[in-house]
Amino acid sequence: MKSGDVITSLNGKPLNSFAELRSRIATTEPGTKVKLGLLRNGKPLEVEVTLDTSTSSSASAEMIAPALQGATLSDGQLKDGTKGIRIDNVEKSSPAAQAGLHKDDVIIGVNRDRVNSIAEMRKVLEAKPSIIALQVVRGNESIYLLLR
């Protein structure tokens, strides 16, 4: 990539904003190769890049699913080493708070699929299901939350 390049798509899917690019990158595993559609000097171009392993692994949850609006997520794990998605923050009165998510909850399942990372959660939710069932670990308890 060069200074002045304008990123127009990620893996063949058009981008509507910088926030969308940031969210899609944040929810893609570090080390993954992605194709970027660019405009360079007004001409379309496609380049393949590998995401840096130091890429931040946090995301605004609403970019993954609107029902999670108000939550900030990051890749995390439980004390026993089980990987999942940590809830770093939940805004008061937000859809995420109303659904029952709390700070420090760890999501380990989405719609009966085990998820180890934000990227995996995003893949499960790409189909945009009307109801989202989350398996959440809160302290020493495993609970289920339904989001619409």
TrEMBL record:
Enzyme Commission code = 3.4.21.107
List the keywords (alphabetical): Hydrolase, Protease, Serine protease
Q: What name has this protein been given in UniProt?
A: peptidase Do
Write the lineage as a comma-separated list.
Bacteria, Pseudomonadati, Pseudomonadota, Gammaproteobacteria, Enterobacterales
Q: Which domain of life is it from?
A: Bacteria
List the SUPFAM superfamilies hit by this protein, alphabetically: PDZ domain-like
- Example GO biological process term? proteolysis
Catalytic reactions of this protein: Acts on substrates that are at least partially unfolded. The cleavage site P1 residue is normally between a pair of hydrophobic residues, such as Val-|-Val
> Which family is it part of?
Belongs to the peptidase S1C family.
* Annotated GO MF terms: peptidase activity
Q: Which residues are in the PDZ domain? A: 48-140
Annotated PANTHER family: SERINE PROTEASE FAMILY S1C HTRA-RELATED, SERINE PROTEASE HTRA2, MITOCHONDRIAL
Q: Which Pfam families match?
A: PDZ (PF00595), PDZ_2 (PF13180)
Classification via PROSITE patterns: PDZ
The record's annotation in Gene3D superfamilies points to: 2.30.42.10
